[in-house]
Amino acid sequence: MTRSPGECRIVVCDELHADGIARFTELGYEPQVVVGAAPEVIHAALAEAHALVVRSATKVTAELLDRAPALEVVCRAGVGVDNVDVAAATERGVVVMNTPTGNTVTTAELALALLVSLARNVPAGDRRVRSGQWNKKGLMGTELSGKRLGVVGLGRIGRVAAERAQGLGMEVIAHDPYLEKTGKGSPLHGVALASLDELLQTCDFVTLHVPLTDETRGMISRERLFAMKPGARIINAARGGLIDEVALVEALDAGHLAGAALDVLAQEPPGADHPLVGRDDVIVTPHLGASSHEAQRAVALDSADQIGAWFADGVANNAVNAPAGSPQLLRQLAPWIDLVERMGSFLGQRAGEPIKKLEVTVHGKVAEAGGVEHLRLALLASLLRHQGFDASVNVVNAPTLAAGRGLQVLEGESEGSDGYTSLIRARASSRGGEESHFVAGTVFGGQPRFVRVEGVYVDLAPQGHLLVTRHRDRPGVLGALGTNLGAAGINVHRAQLGAIGAGHASAFLSIDRQPDDEVMARLEELEPIEEISYLFL
Ligand SMILES: NC(=O)c1ccc[n+]([C@@H]2O[C@H](COP(=O)([O-])OP(=O)(O)OC[C@H]3O[C@@H](n4cnc5c(N)ncnc54)[C@H](O)[C@@H]3O)[C@@H](O)[C@H]2O)c1
Ligand SMILES: O=C(O)[C@H](O)COP(=O)(O)O
């Protein structure tokens, strides 16, 4: 749905570069900046917000989301979304997006700065001079050239850090299981992939560049710290929580590790007596990784552009919980989204009991254009909205809601496109499959059309009031239905019917208004009618 900027309330919760605010203004939006505002001001802003912009300071919890009932999108001006409860946002149908590329180089450069500073005791030397001492005793460093650096997480930042370190003459190896799974090997010349254990055991320096997730939390455990090469140094410009901080203190105290440089801590800001703060062998910086003018400007501009694209075109660029897609693709898909929403509505209303299995297949040109996932999700969301869920079901929360209800979404059997340039088929079945409904549709001249419903080939404009029957296939059924509807003043615009086998048939009557209960009861009582339902599409 496209909205004009005047309709959209954008709330900026953390410091955002002025050029980002200016970009919002250029796009016609008037963001409300609530950094440092009183709680009641923030709460009032949240109550009306359609979009939030945050960095790492604001914690987007379920409670915060509950204060923002109109919220559609949370944009993290930066990479890590560990400060956003993505599951809670997803459940509420809120898109969560980040701006992943703007601070890549800047953060890699900070990791490099920490690496060099740590190797050569730069902060300790500076502290000594500030305290009036001009001597180098105990500040003997180590050369980087010829040393081995282990990069944990060879993504955007890890790759830049790896290449820059090669430029310093270091031998670089990396650990990244997701990269390994692609089977393509290392994307960087001269950077071999290794297991985490091998990397830790053989590297003189280790730098972390992985996101904080349930899988990575505490990955540099006590056991792993003590399995590192004696005298090694560790750098963390990714996230606190990756390293067991208590064990790190022990590994340093025991002389097993020579030093650590940390831009991030498990708790930020740290308590006054944090054991890693204030040591000569540890450098701690206050989450400075993305703090360069260039990076902050880039992530702020990206935030404005991404939120603008969401409101203008419904495009969820860099969403972590929704499919993306270019404006062109979404424009191309628009009539198909309309079609699948009507298919979902049809199936949701036809089913007498909760659907447990939904099989969707997308054939032909529309599949080749991409966006199959959009179509599947839009169909599912529409089906759920017609199966007891409210209007807040959307492509973001539909999979979670479906899973919670035990509804499986599967790819259906590939049966070709039946001669149509593009065709979408959907079958919805109840548990055990004893109740199953089918619809296939396409788009003609930009308009949605159902071409097969249940077992009958039709040419049905899926709009407005519709009666669907299952009846014994004998003469006079259509006449009897028409006579009774006519007597109630209901006009039949179009009637189509066909045999569905074993002496049964189905009819589809497009009518001009909803029959009341009395009329429906009369139709149900007609002798050949086995089942009749009213739907509004
Ligand atoms: N200090 C800062 O200010 C700052 C700035 C930017 C980013 N960050 C942090 O750095 C992280 C990385 O950013 P990025 O842009 O490079 O992200 P990215 O997604 O491009 O790269 C992350 C890489 O980690 C890999 N990975 C995931 N789980 C892993 C595991 N268990 N072991 C090894 N590798 C694993 C992924 O496959 C991916 O290649 C972010 O998630 C963020 O938390 C910190
Ligand atoms: O993940 C990120 O992008 C960094 O941690 C940056 O955090 P910041 O926006 O608070 O500087």
Automatic annotation (TrEMBL):
Reactions catalysed: (R)-2-hydroxyglutarate + NAD(+) = 2-oxoglutarate + NADH + H(+); (2R)-3-phosphoglycerate + NAD(+) = 3-phosphooxypyruvate + NADH + H(+)
Query: GO annotations under biological process?
Result: L-serine biosynthetic process
Under PROSITE patterns, the record lists: ACT, D_2_HYDROXYACID_DH_1, D_2_HYDROXYACID_DH_2, D_2_HYDROXYACID_DH_3
What is a GO molecular function of this protein?
NAD binding
Q: In which pathway does it act?
A: Amino-acid biosynthesis; L-serine biosynthesis; L-serine from 3-phospho-D-glycerate: step 1/3
The UniProt record lists the ACT domain at 466-537
Family annotation (CDD domains): PGDH_4
Taxonomically, the superkingdom here is: Bacteria
Q: What is its EC number?
A: 1.1.1.95
Annotated Pfam families: 2-Hacid_dh, 2-Hacid_dh_C, ACT, PGDH_inter
Gene3D superfamilies annotated for this entry?
3.30.70.260, D-3-phosphoglycerate dehydrogenase, domain 3, NAD(P)-binding Rossmann-like Domain
Secretion signal: which residues? none
For this UniProt record, the keywords arranged alphabetically read as follows: Amino-acid biosynthesis, NAD, Oxidoreductase, Serine biosynthesis
Coiled coil segments of this chain: none
PANTHER family to which the protein is assigned, alphabetical: D-ISOMER SPECIFIC 2-HYDROXYACID DEHYDROGENASE FAMILY PROTEIN (AFU_ORTHOLOGUE AFUA_6G10090) (PTHR42789:SF1)
Q: What does this protein do?
A: Catalyzes the reversible oxidation of 3-phospho-D-glycerate to 3-phosphonooxypyruvate, the first step of the phosphorylated L-serine biosynthesis pathway. Also catalyzes the reversible oxidation of 2-hydroxyglutarate to 2-oxoglutarate.
Family classification: Belongs to the D-isomer specific 2-hydroxyacid dehydrogenase family.
Protein's UniProt name? D-3-phosphoglycerate dehydrogenase
Traced from the root, the source organism's taxonomic lineage reads: Bacteria, Pseudomonadati, Planctomycetota, Planctomycetia, Planctomycetia incertae sedis
- Gene coding for it: serA
